[in-house]
Amino acid sequence: MSKLIRFLLVAGIIAALLVSAGCGQGADTGQESTKVRLAEVTHSIFYAPQYVALTQGIFEKHGLDVELAAAFGGDKTMTALLSDSADVILMGSEATMYVANQDANDLAVNFAQLTQRDGSFLVSRQPIENFSWDMLKGKVLLGQRKGGMPEMVSEYVQYLNGLEPHKDVEIIQNVEFQNLGPAFASGTGDFVQLFEPVASAMEIAGKGYVIASMGKESGKLPYTVYITKESIIDDQPETIQKFTDAVYEAQQWVNSHSIAEIADAIQPHFSDTDRETMLMVLNRYKEQDTWATDPILDEEEYHNLEAVMEYAGELTNKVPYEKVVNTEFARKAMNK
How many domains does the chain have? Predict the structure, then answer.
């Protein structure tokens, strides 16, 4: 079954999760603001600039009333867009290639990049001061879902470091994402690939230790990007421009503020995360240059993503950069 068809099969589920559009009052003009239904692939500190835009009134300043919902999963997130249950989605740009390769009439288009590196980390049972990737040889790695971007990046990083995944390293891939931390803590695997805040929480609890960053090792990628349909760009260019302007302002805010200030700003969205963990996570992400400082998805990053996908055997046909990437709004935002 094709990815596009699978997207559409769950459209009804997503429609029930996302609330229909309405109107509010814009903060800067007093005019009616434009409702934007935004679906994120998951809810994560990884997307800190987005939550800054929400809590600091940046979207409102640009005349937008952004309604956020988590779709929980790549297929479901793209389905939200294709089924008109969301106006904009935040997820990996690889999904736009899948849609394009299904000969969709209304393409999914990347218009503003948020994160520029993978957000996962390699965690060991004991601290390793001088880690080298050959230490994984003959070991068991508790990995991510086959075909998902985190697993593709992990296997590509292993390849770049002289390892042959699944031959030199045994990779367990039948553990659900939310259970990876508990499974590792209970004794499964020698190493585990984890996202934040689980990786930092494991360190604080003394159950695991971050020894490598997949984001640093793999280089810059359009890891999470704001995506909309080509028809929405054609029909509502002013809305997409306002959204991109707000994203750029939030990126600049994050780039110019301290970790403590970012933590204060996004705390309303992560009330269950204690401050020590929050600061550790934000510091780790900021140190490795996780967040893009502008919304342009550049061509070099796009081709790096292609290389990751090709190695994983997940890219049947290359999709021209210009077909699924629109930098017009990002460039205008930066020129204002």
Answer: 2
CB atoms within 10 A of CB 307: 15
147 CB-contact burial (10 Å; exposed 0-12 / middle 13-18 / buried 19+): middle
pTM of the model: 0.87
My answer on whether 125 and 110 are in the same domain is no
Instruction: Please indicate, yes or no, whether residues 195 and 231 belong to a single structural domain of this protein.
Output: no
Residue 312 and residue 156 in contact, taking contact as beta carbons nearer than 8 Å: yes
* Same domain (yes/no): 89, 213: no
Together in a domain, 237 and 95: yes
pLDDT tens string 102-123:
999 999 999 999 999 999 999 9
Structural domain of residue 77, as residue ranges?
A: 3-117+221-335
Could you give the percent of the chain with pLDDT greater than 90? 85
Distance CA 214, CA 200 (A): 15
Quick count: other Cβ atoms within 10 Å of Cβ 90?
24
Type of residue at 117: R
- For residue 141, list its beta bridge partners: 171, 191
- Regions of the chain short of the pLDDT cut 70: 1-31
Picking from 186, 218, 250, the residue at the C-terminal end of a domain is 218
36 plus 180 within the same structural domain: no
Tracing tokens 């090709």 back to the chain, one arrives at 310
Q: Do residues 40 and 90 touch, judged by C-beta distance below 8 A?
A: yes
- Angle formed at CA 260 by CA 256 and CA 265, multiple of 5 degrees: 80
Phi, psi of 209 (to 5 degrees): -140, 125
Residue 107, CA atoms < 13 Å, CB-side half-sphere: 21
| pLDDT per position as a tens digit, 316-334 | 899 999 999 999 999 999 9
- Does 236 share its domain with 267? yes
